[in-house]
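Q: Please design a sequence for this.
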């Protein structure tokens, strides 16, 4: 097979506000120039955030280019610094394709579509699974196969590499969580044997496991997707975070591929000094963006209004699939031809439409444009995420004319891992002092408690609950709703503040 990137062709250059210049090598431009990828220009990276932060108008297209840039750069460094890893040019290309295409499966308004809207219609799709489907379909088209086969092989070799790309985007690595296996199996040799026997990805065996940490890292959450979206989201919202491209460069420069100390498969391992500074900065930046951007109360209120719009058009706007069948918005994930027709411009279609059945949806769009959005009445914080019935309880105790004027918004204000551990405990490190002294290092280790004692504590997730109401209620109506809400909160052992805040 031919070497990639090719030396006999000039890359296409993209000017980028985060990474300055992004160089895209053939045959990746074949993918970029397809309508499925160009569609990402019309899908906002941050869904409705631009309605709160006006400059946050970046899209999935630019983020995908940024993730590709970092993935290409990361693998280039690994190939250059560690030739003994024997990373092939085909693997380099596969990782680059996966990073470029990882978000091609996003629906309109990004995570709003496969998040709150999917939950509201009781759907079961994920954008990562749709990305896998689209990649498989695109890579099997004759013109695409012809462009890639000199680098990825033909026949079964090509099929294996396509499986690899899909697995890099999203795949389950093992049948159950490693924490669970660690508790079930005491001896490292048995754990290592279990890992080999239970490795699930088809595109590469467990000896290439470290390559799966680059685009979508299931183990410690640090990958090029996260690096780019945090840098990009901060740049376009103006949110102040202590994370720069220099931090990412240091992370990549101080990375080794070593054995997992418990399961003996190869992972991306960080220098301890990098983990305690640059890797920790990634977590701090994620929390900061969560607090001031992703979970901003006005963002969550407008998000809820957008979900109402999508629910109201769900039965009235249909999209034609590959066989001519029409699909509702909540069904387009069943047919990729129907799916790729839909992007954020669906909102403009609703607003321009004169169909009477879309009038309710148009009225919500009109309210958003006029900034006629619900306002916060009261709020409280709590650590129990099971509280889900407050809105229905409150509405049931209000007069009928007020029941559709109130909403309860739940926000995740701080986030811990599923095991309620500090995120740094998921990171594996090597001691750079040992490396400098010539000590042979073949495995990573977990950070000690004293290593992370200066970092933030590992509290359970904290949620914010806000009662928002129509701006057109009278002071007396607001007071009645507030009193009823406080009664329910008191019954549940929670306390709310009483400060109205016209956000």
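A: Design:
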């Amino acid at each position: 097979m031919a070497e990639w990137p090719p030396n006999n062709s000039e890359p296409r250059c993209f000017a980028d506000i985060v990474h300055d210049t992004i160089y895209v090598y053939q045959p990746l431009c074949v993918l970029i120039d397809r309508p499925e990828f160009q569609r990402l220009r019309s899908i906002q990276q941050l869904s409705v955030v631009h309605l709160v932060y006006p400059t946050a108008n970046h899209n999935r297209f630019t983020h995908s280019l940024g993730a590709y840039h970092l993935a290409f750069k990361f693998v280039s460094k690994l190939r250059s610094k560690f030739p003994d890893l024997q990373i092939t040019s085909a693997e380099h290309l596969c990782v680059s394709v996966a990073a470029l295409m990882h978000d091609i499966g996003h629906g309109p308004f990004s995570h709003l579509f496969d998040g709150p809207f999917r939950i509201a219609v009781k759907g079961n799709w994920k954008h990562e699974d749709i990305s896998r489907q689209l990649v498989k379909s695109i890579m099997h088209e004759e013109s695409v196969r012809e462009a890639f086969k000199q680098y990825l092989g033909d026949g079964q070799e090509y099929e294996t590499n396509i499986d690899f790309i899909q697995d890099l985007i999203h795949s389950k690595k093992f049948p159950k969580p490693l924490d669970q296996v660690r508790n079930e199996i005491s001896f490292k040799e048995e754990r290592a044997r279990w890992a080999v026997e239970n490795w699930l990805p088809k595109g590469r065996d467990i000896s290439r496991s470290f390559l799966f940490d680059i685009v979508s890292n299931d183990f410690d959450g640090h990958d090029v997707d996260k690096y780019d979206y945090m840098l990009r989201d901060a740049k376009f919202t103006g949110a102040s975070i202590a994370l720069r491209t220099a931090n990412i460069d240091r992370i990549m420069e101080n990375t080794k591929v070593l054995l997992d100390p418990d399961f003996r498969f190869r992972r991306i391992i960080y220098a301890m000094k990098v983990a305690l500074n640059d890797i920790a900065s990634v977590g701090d930046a994620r929390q900061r963006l969560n607090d001031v951007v992703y979970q901003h109360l006005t963002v969550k209120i407008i998000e809820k209004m957008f979900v109402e719009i999508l629910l109201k058009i769900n039965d009235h706007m249909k999209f034609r699939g590959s066989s001519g069948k029409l699909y509702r918005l909540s069904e387009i994930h069943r047919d990729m031809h129907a799916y790729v027709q839909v992007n954020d411009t669906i909102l403009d279609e609703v607003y321009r439409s004169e169909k009477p059945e879309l009038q309710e949806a148009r009225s919500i769009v009109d309210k958003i444009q006029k900034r006629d959005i619900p306002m916060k009445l009261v709020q409280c914080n709590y650590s129990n995420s099971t509280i889900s019935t407050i809105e229905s309880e409150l509405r049931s105790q209000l007069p009928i004319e007020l029941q559709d004027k109130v909403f309860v918004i739940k926000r995740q204000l701080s986030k811990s891992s599923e095991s309620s551990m500090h995120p740094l405990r998921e990171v594996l490190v090597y001691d750079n002092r040992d490396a400098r002294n010539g000590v042979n290092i073949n495995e990573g280790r977990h950070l000690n408690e004293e290593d992370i004692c200066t970092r933030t504590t590992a509290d359970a997730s904290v949620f914010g609950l806000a009662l928002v109401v129509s701006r057109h209620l009278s002071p007396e109506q607001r007071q009645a709703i507030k009193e009823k809400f406080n009664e329910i909160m008191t019954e549940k052992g929670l306390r709310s503040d009483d400060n109205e805040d016209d956000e």
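Q: Thanks. Anything notable?
A: Residues 272-294 form the longest helix (23 residues). Residues 12-295+417-452 form a domain with the Hypothetical protein af1432 fold (CATH 1.10.3210.10).
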